[in-house]
Design goal:
There is one protein chain. The chain is mainly alpha-helical and 341 residues long. The protein has 2 domains: 251 residues, Orthogonal Bundle (Fic-like fold); 69 residues, Orthogonal Bundle (Arc Repressor Mutant, subunit A). The protein contains 14 helices and 6 strands. Strands 1-2 form a two-stranded antiparallel ribbon. It has a two-stranded antiparallel sheet with strand order 3-4. Strands 5-6 form a two-stranded antiparallel sheet.
Length: 341
């Protein structure tokens, strides 16, 4: 995976991680695309409004609930990953119950009832939608899931920070193994992607996303691997998909830097006869503060679409250039812009 290592190095070198709030905005992207693979039509912008403002989009209620549930499951999963929590059947079932909290079902079978709302393991046999291929018998699921957790915990302890290639390989393989076991009656794909992202978070690598545009290739690669009994096709797809996503992000970021370099004749600040060149972010924030000197950081992030770390960093730069200062208490104070701005 040397190509992946080189691409990640460039991704970090040009400063993209500093522009992304991984605990929030990037998480919303992961959730949106993961549910989109399952058929949700809620967009990333709609999810942002739904999660942050409680503004419901004009989309089916079940789709909205699916996104809310997955977001809540991810928040807890990421916290567990950062604590390096070991995997267990109990933990996975708990996370599954969060994923299916509002959209799950209580099943009644000859063996008794079980609830996907509670994250309980299936007591029935299931087939895949693509051609009716059967998953393993429900009777084998508890032991296989126990074996999966033991295997995953053992493999995790062999990894170390910086072992990028093997971190991604294990995260993709854990995704494949979990979805192949298919422990639950529903939500298996979302759970497999969640576990994959948990491992990536634990070892501090850039989380991978299966975007809705890649849904068909994603499903085909998984089907091919399961039919062949070999994860290679799926692992290759996941690696190449992640590389492609990173390359697109790098390209878009470089283009944005070009666009952010504004002509001095159009946008300048004159202080003591010195003409300073400001970035697009700096100019946007200055404009908002001129309109409302009491504006809050949260309001700036919502209006500009910038992450909180980016806003804070931009304000710090404006202060260093003596273009911006703060007056009064932190909660009720106001911004002061240079009179010459």
């Amino acid at each position: 995976m040397s190509k992946l290592h080189d691409i990640i190095s460039e991704y970090v070198k040009i400063g993209i991680p500093e522009q992304i709030d991984y605990d929030k905005l990037y998480l919303y992207s992961i959730v949106t695309h993961s549910t989109a693979v399952e058929g949700s039509t809620v967009t990333e912008i709609e999810n942002k409004l739904l999660f942050d403002e409680g503004v419901s989009p004009n989309k089916p209620l079940e789709e909205q609930l699916m996104n809310i549930d997955l977001k809540n499951a991810y928040i807890e999963a990421i916290a567990l990953a950062k604590q390096h929590t070991d995997f267990s059947v109990k933990l996975l079932c708990h996370l599954s119950s969060m994923v299916m909290n509002n959209t799950g079902t209580e099943y009644h079978t000859a063996l008794g009832k079980f609830s996907s709302i509670k994250g309980e393991l299936r007591l029935l046999n299931v087939t895949a939608g693509r051609g009716g291929k059967s998953y393993m018998s429900y009777e084998k699921v508890p032991q296989r899931l126990e074996d999966f957790c033991n295997w995953l915990n053992t493999q995790r302890k062999r990894l170390s920070l910086g072992d990028t290639d093997n971190i991604y390989k294990l995260s993709f393989l854990s995704h494949y193994n979990l979805v192949t076991i298919h422990p639950w009656a529903d939500g298996n794909g979302r759970m497999a992607r969640l576990v994959m992202n948990m491992l990536q978070t634990e070892f501090d690598v850039i989380p991978s996303i299966v975007k809705k545009d890649s849904r068909e290739q994603y499903i085909k690669s998984l089907a091919q691997s399961q039919e062949e009994g070999n994860p290679s096709a799926f692992l290759d797809f996941m690696l190449n998909n992640h590389i492609e996503n990173l390359l697109v992000t790098i390209k878009e970021y470089k283009n944005s830097l070009k666009n952010d370099t504004l002509n001095l004749e159009n946008d300048t600040l004159n202080l003591e006869n010195d003409t300073l060149k400001l970035s697009k972010n700096e100019l946007s924030i200055i404009k908002l503060i001129k309109e409302n000197s009491y504006i809050k950081i949260t309001e700036i992030t919502k209006i500009t679409g910038l992450s909180r770390p980016t806003v804070m960093r931009t304000i710090r730069k404006l202060k260093e250039k003596h273009l911006l200062s703060r007056e009064g208490a932190k909660k009720n104070g106001k911004w002061i812009i240079s009179p010459d701005s």
